[in-house]
Amino acid sequence: MEREMTNWIDNIWPKFLDAGLSIVWAVILLIIGIKVINVARKLLKSALERSNIDTGVVQFLDAFVKFAAYAVLILALLGHFGVQTTSFITILGSAGVAIGLSLQGSLSNFAGGILILILKPFVVGDYVSACGCEGTVAVISLFYTTLHTVDNRNVVLPNGSLSNSNITNYSANEIRRVDMSVDVGYGSDLKKAREVIMDILNQDERILKDPAPIVAVDNLGDSGVNVLIRPWVKCEDYWAVKWSVLEAVHNRLNAEQIDIPFPQMTVHLDQNS
């Protein structure tokens, strides 16, 4: 009996020892893994915060990294104890594919929102043109961006389409050029017309002196000479300057007896036909 007990202890003791060592190594691996995950999360958050990335994006990326890191750690611990993790990975992969296909549009908008918030092609308050719409950016969320148009409408754009489209940000720079034109009749004094227009621009304090405004002949049209008017202004003064300058040009040219022609066509009749 004593010999049987001794043999049993001799047989079982190595197994207990191996199991104990496995548990110890698993605990050590768990502690090291948690420490590494926490350090990595802190470094990631610090880097993102220094980049002035939106708080919502920072929190999402932190949660995603935490979830992914702990999933890898758990799989590593299961593999340490001899559990076959291939089936778990296969199931998770299949579930991910199924969820991705069912939420394809939403995931596209979500990914687009992340890119917009990280790359910042525009921020709230910028005046932009994209997807056939233009307006002031009112809200940037993870799924949609809202534009407030000049006629007081809210246009909601999906971030997936927005991130893949051409975006024109009119507020990216502090100043902007106002492009206008006016036709002057062929019988009018072109030099005087240019001087009148330049005088209007020089008297407007909102128009910048540097870069200097341009008044130049652009084209000889069917009805008159097309004169370009290109002053530079601050972005916030763009529309006010454009409207007031066009009105002033019309009034001053009329006052100076400079013809602004209607669209017209000269027809020559053949008297012999």
Spell out the key features of this protein:
single chain, 273 residues, alpha+beta, Helix Hairpins, SH3 type barrels, Alpha-Beta Plaits, 3 domains, five-stranded antiparallel sheet, three-stranded antiparallel sheet, 7 helices, 10 strands, 53% helix, 18% strand, elongated
What is this structure's SSE topology?
Blueprint: H1 2-50, H2 55-80, H3 86-102, H4 104-119, E1 127-130, E2 133-140, E3 144-148, E4 154-158, H5 159-163, E5 168-169, E6 175-177, E7 180-184, H6 190-203, E8 214-220, E9 225-230, E10 232-234, H7 238-255
Antiparallel strand pairs: 1-2, 1-5, 2-3, 3-4, 6-10, 7-9, 8-9
Describe this structure in words.
The structure is a single chain. The protein is an alpha+beta fold and 273 residues long. The protein has 3 domains: 101 residues, Helix Hairpins; 49 residues, Roll (SH3 type barrels); 81 residues, 2-Layer Sandwich (Alpha-Beta Plaits), CATH 3.30.70.100. 53% of the residues lie in helices and 18% in strands. The strands form 3 sheets. A 5-stranded antiparallel β-sheet has the order 4-3-2-1-5. It has a 3-stranded antiparallel β-sheet with strand order 7-9-8, with helices on one face. Strand 1 and strand 2 form a beta hairpin. It is elongated. It starts with a helix and ends in an 18-residue tail after the last helix. The mean pLDDT is 81.
